[in-house]
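Following up on my earlier message about S-adenosylmethionine. Here are the inputs again, as you asked, copied directly from the submission form:
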Amino acid sequence: MLTSEPGQQPAPAVRPEVWETYGPADLSAVPVFAGGFINFGYWRSIDLERPLAESDRVRSEQDLYRHVLDAAAPEGARAVEIGCGLGLGCALALDEYRPAAITGVDIHPHQLRRAREANAPLLRARPQRLRFALGAAEKLPLDDAEFDCLYSVEAAQHFPDLPAFAREAARVLRPGGRVAVASFFTVDDAPAHADRLAGLLDSFASGLDIARPVSRLADALTDAGLVDVRVRSIGPQVWPGWDRWLARLWEPGTWPRNFLAAWEQDILDYYLVTATRP
Ligand SMILES: C[S@@+](CC[C@H](N)C(=O)[O-])C[C@H]1O[C@@H](n2cnc3c(N)ncnc32)[C@H](O)[C@@H]1O
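Thanks, got it. Here's what our run produced:
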């Protein structure tokens, strides 16, 4: 599972569940993740009362990025995305938010290859403004104070070591730099949550997604020296829409439909977490 790219630091170790899901299994090719994005979507602007089209689904995935980028405020900034997948969020940011430059980081070499393929024309047209780098959230292949903002969309649920990620975020940001992270976490640290999630959701049972309270990330950011740490639930804009879309392909009672159940049972929620480097 260890591969390296010419001229780069040694490739990071990839957990087996992450390796399989984003490598050979290529989650981006699964029909529920339409358009090359791999996230549950932010559905506020989409009418859930009428039949959903694939264009609605892609819009939801783009809108999750827009929601995070609105918080990260990358205009004119040197921005970095952690867990960039196919890099389509980097391209969206470049197109709509006018950052000075953007770096997409992902731990999986197959994702980095897909990102470079998907963005080949953009990489050729704007080589100074877009690049992709192989690396782990917990050990970023980036210089100290290199960025004005760091953001991440639906990747932190996989990061095994949130304190290490938070320290790295603080390290690569300049003073005044901003963090915006969107992902799903348990609502609190009740010990029963992990077992209940493993019972409801295969992705938690397999260890792909890690059950932790959102306070774990917020505390890690504070401990890393970041300030103005804020946690906002965006679950109402994520879970009902995601489940309406899933209903096209998955029967009630099948495991992916249980994300909505986990939210309704007050176990899991989807959050936007922001912070600033003083
Ligand atoms: C659900 S996908 C999200 C991709 C993209 N952000 C999107 O919304 O389309 C999660 C991504 O995080 C990456 N990832 C998982 N663990 C990581 C880690 N420890 N460090 C960096 N990237 C990681 C995976 O390889 C995968 O590409």
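One observation from looking it over: The beta strands are 78-82, 101-106, 130-134, 147-153, 173-186, 227-233, 268-276. Hope that helps, and feel free to reply on this thread.
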